[in-house]
């Protein structure tokens, strides 16, 4: 249990029990990164006391009573209605529950930037933090980078001849005379349920023809003539479509697409999930226009997945430029369905 100081109500500290329910017939992997999304109005009704939504990320930590220790957590952001955290837990068994305690101090900062942290770009834009201050994403996710400073981390291999600039974020710019340009990382292990890539980024400009897109690649031999990958892209085909595709031995094949065009100079988050059961289940989403896609494909199994990449595509005319602030890769939940949460105030 948490220290008794945190359970004395109704003083400034509150403890909310978070019950995580995995209703799938498959356990999550170990460790698992659990998304916890909470409506601010509902949070206030549970607390019975007012707290500014922009104080919540600084004043909230998670405690794991099963492990008798604080759980690693990373605050993603507040969208005007919902708060979103990602919390590292052990495996959550099939058709079982797991308990966390959400500890909120209505006055005092609890976040330390080590066990509990905050998205670098959100902290800078909304909380008055310096870029990367209190960001502990590397302690939560399988692969994580916020590109703080001006030097690229050694976890990445670059490709393409576009311009790559690192300065509290990474900007990849490709003109019509250059090749698609991106970064590749190699996971130390691939979760048995699959992988999710999540990004916070900004659209600076989009070429008017050709590839032009911002995208993810999961597979092997990335940037070679024998590439084998699943691809998710946004604002491709000259800023007209999002899509899911596969590249088999270097040959591109579209799977599904939807019409979409980017909104320039506006921060967005997006994700690409490759979940695997007996086949590959692909999902993608971007927050600028709320477009999402899903598809099932049997071409690749997870044994193909040895590399992950994000990139800026080659436009036939004009210039495509995207700035990525934070990028995280973590385990896909069983069947592609994140375990649900239920909240109750401890009194």
Summary?
This protein has three helices and 26 strands.
**Which architecture name of the largest domain does CATH use?**
Sandwich
What is the CATH C-level name of the largest domain?
A: Mainly Beta
The total of helices stands at 3
Query: Level of helix content?
Result: under 10%
The CATH topology name of the largest domain reads Jelly Rolls
Q: What does this molecule look like?
A:
There is one protein chain. This protein has helices spanning 40-47, 120-127, 236-239, and strands at 13-22, 32-39, 60-64, 69-71, 73-78, 82-89, 96-105, 116-118, 143-145, 157-159, 163-166, 170-175, 181-185, 194-205, 209-210, 214-220, 228-235, 241-248, 251-259, 267-276, 280-286, 292-297, 307-312, 315-317, 319-331, 340-345. It has 3 helices and 26 strands. The strands form 5 sheets. Strands 9, 11, 12, 14, 20, 21, 22 and 25 form an 8-stranded antiparallel β-sheet that branches. Strand 18 and strand 19 form a beta hairpin. The protein is mainly beta and 347 residues long. Mean pLDDT is 95; it is low at 4-10. It folds into 2 domains: 4-140, no CATH class; 144-331, Sandwich (Jelly Rolls), CATH 2.60.120.
